Every structure is written in C-alpha cells, then in structure tokens.
What we know:
This protein is an alpha+beta fold. The protein is 41% helix and 19% strand. The protein contains 16 helices and 13 strands. The longest helix has 14 residues.
Amino acid sequence: MHYSQIKKSLALILALALIWTVVHVQPVLANAANKSAVALLVAKDSAGKMLGTGTGFIVNPDGVLVTNYHVLLDAADIEAVMSNGDRVKVKSLLNVDRAKDFAILQLAEGAYSTLEIGDSDQLKEFDYLSALGFLSENVGPRQRNGQSDGKGMVIQTFGFVLGIHPQAQTDFPFIYTTASFGPGFSGGPVINQQNRVVGIATVEGRSINLALPINFIKPFLETRNEMSLADLLEADKNSKEAHYYRGNYFLYVRGDPDRAVKEFESVLKLDDSFVLAHYDLAAAYQSQGFSDRAIKEYERAVALNPSFPEGSSNLGGYYFRMQKYEQAVKLFEQALKAYPNFIQAHSNLGAVLNKLNRSGEAVPHLKKAIQLDPEFGIAYFNLGNAYIKQDNLDEAREAYDTAVGKGIDFLSLHWNLHKIHSRQGRSLDAKRELEIILQIDPQNLDAQKKLKELPR
C-alpha cells in the first residue's frame, strides 16, 4: 500500500493566520552523495497491481537494504529499481520494527554499492542534513515497471537539524529537520555533511520532517532472522501499527476519511493509549466536518502525552478558532517546551498573543519562526499584525509586503496595507490595495465605497 505521502499534521491554513503542516519540497539533483546506493522500491499486491512506491538505501554490499516498515505494508511483492535501471527482487525480510517504522530487507544475490553509516548521537541543532529519495510524482509507468534507466530520478534536498525530540511516543526520538521529504521519500537516507547516513526519512511535512535516528537501526543490521512478505502479511492482520498506517493511507493519500476512521478505531480497540491513532483520528473527523469529535481526540492525544508537540499545537489551533485564547497560549507554549524550534508553534503563539494585545511578546516568536524558515509567509503576516498594533507602520508594511511576495493574500492584510498607505499619504498605493481587495471580494461594499470616494 502507498504510504509515501503520510503526514502527521493537518494541511490547513486558518483564516486566523494559524498554520498547520503542509508539504514543502525544494528538490535539487543529487551530486556528491552515492545515489547508486539509493533504490526506488515498488510495492505490488498479489495480483501484480502497484500499491505504491518508496525509497530504500543499501548498507551492505551483499544487498542489505533499509527502508520504512510502512512502505512494505500489504505488499506481496517488492522490487528495487536501481539507478542503472536494474530490477532486483526483495528476497526476504531480515528485521521489522513496526513501532519505530523501519524494515531491513535482503535483496537478491549480487554485489551492491553502499552508503556509509554515521553516528546520529553526534547530531546537534542546526547541523547540516540532506535527504535523498524518489518523488512519487516523478515515477511514471515505465519506472514503476522497472523499464527506465533511473538516471536523474534521485532527488536531494537540503536543510538542517531543528531538534532531536520524541514525538507521540516517548521512548525514542526523531530528528526534526528542515530538509524536505517529498512524497515517495519514505525509507530514504538522511545524510550528514560527510554523506554518512544518520537517519531514515519517516514523516513529511512543512518544516516538520521527521527522521528516525540511524543508531536505533544499527544494532539490527547484522541480524538474519529471515521472514517472507507472506509471513509479514499474515502477521499484520492483527497489528495495530498496520491498521494505523492503513488509516494514514486512506486519509492522506486516498482522501477517504470514512475508511480512515474505521482503521483508526480498529487501532484504538487494540490499544486505546495509541497516541497517534487519536491524533490522526482527529484529523479524519476534521475532514468529515466533525469539529467536536476532532477536538475530543486531540484532547485525548495531548492528555496521553502532554509533550507531543504537534498534538498540543493543533489543539491550540482549535482553541484559537474558538476564541479560547488563553488556553491556546498554554498549548502553544507547551508545544515549544517540548520542541523549542517548532516553527509553526512560534508563529501560532505570535498570532494568539496579537489577539490578546500582547504584541510585544508576539514579535520575538514571529522573528524566531522567520529566522528558522525565511520562506514562511504566514509568520511575516503575523509579524505585520504585531507591528501595526504597536503603530510601527514602516515595519508593518515591510512585513506585509514580504508576506504578499511569499503568496499570502488575505483580505485583512490588504486592508491593513490600505490603512498604512492612507496614513502615510501614499494615495496611489492605497487605491491599489482597494482594487486588490475587490479582485478578491468583488462584492465588498466598504472597498467599493472607499474607491468611489477617492478624488478623480
């Protein structure tokens, strides 16, 4: 089944200028890294129908390959397509860890190029990282059938370490990185500046790209407890993790929240303390339009793990929309305590502090969000709102103009720019903002009236 687009946060931008997680991919063709050791994985069912694609990387010249467990789910057959176009069958599974979401595979007999394994314990905040993988959108029918030479298909993205923190599960951490994981990167290598693997791409999202540290996989690279894909299919029938990843597939890939809800409910029947099942069940309920149910599930997820940063931030977003601003502040602060470089939480906290007329406190959080992600348009918008509350018109105009340049086009932004231009005597600029407002909302009576009142 195709799980390469699994997201652990909602792709929703709220009108109140709260942001949830969206995919942000800036691909660059791989050069220095050994991309011949990176393989496209094509998963098929028992009828030969393609379920999806993922990425894997070879760590032993005998053909030991590492990927995500969820890439294998429901597959009866998996082929590795190498960079030279060779198709290689997966012979067996050497190890599977559903909770940490990794699998170690044995390819058919041969001699393989490898990537060197690094030491994830040495990583620090702001260290360089790079991710390699195969974008699903670039994989056409020929590549899926292994008929392409594979050249130019490996994509490399670049970023840095935002932090190393537990996510929903408290017993192991993830590497949070700005290196983007595109759809299809699941199971791909995350490498340091020496091109050594320090993590495995596991969760994708805007500025919330999570990699499992490689040191959790190292102890199992020499194990040889072989099992077949058929054995895995049988074992997964009663696996809570299998139900969970199927739910993710139906929700985020197929856009079928009804099927997703059934899978997440199956998880919770097996284990009601499964934090991520509550979290993604909330997302499914939101997709169905059941806000009350979504809030209840987010609250349950946060109650089970108060240090789950994405859970606290998303619940804070709901409280913001409900105008429960003080509760929202506490949740965003809770998220930042667990994950100090959480870009969205800094921006969200700045937005809610603006609502509470605490713009002086908002500005440092918004500047921090921009420092960590200079392309984050919503943060510039929120910063403009903070400055205009302080009557710092030049700074507000600069922040709003930057937000517009990064694709933010809210009515309130253009109204504020209109007010700034009017107060500073730039009548032509003020008129232009009214015209933009009417392009967005042609029936806006206030804009129509003000435009008519302007001198000819």
